Amino acid sequence: MSHRIDPKKTRVVCPVPSCKTKWITLSNRSTHYGTHKNHDGSLPSYSDRLYREMAAVDHEAFFDHWKVHLHDSPNYVGSPATDGYDSVVTAIEETGVSANDAMFGMIEFVCRKLGGNPGAMVREYARAKNLTTTEEPDDQPEEEIAQTTHVAAGAPIVRAVLQRSTKCPKKN
Prior knowledge:
This protein is of the alpha+beta class.
């Protein structure tokens, strides 16, 4: 494509079905519609309400055509197709932050962005799954269990030593 697309500009969908341009910048709506109106006098008069915001499918079609994610696209953040793509893996390598910390940070960010409380979410999940939490200390000692599994040609190997907490009540 010969055009340089500015991904920072918000675009809307042209209301004329036969429009080849299809995705119009907000600042160019009136002028763009005027060219359609000049060719087809039966079109209604211009109004900002004729244009609609781009939906996720419109953003996907825009990307398929131009190979650029617009900044207001739901697909913009973290997309490898975005100019200047910055991956989580690259950030982890550069900063030395552990993958676990990075994942927890991202989950917390998304939860807060959606208006949630990350701590309450974790506590609710633990309660729903009957997991032991620091609020409910487990009085039972942890026991170590070695699990074996048969791999190739029946050779047993010790896969891992698992720590399992039991929730059985103490016998008096």
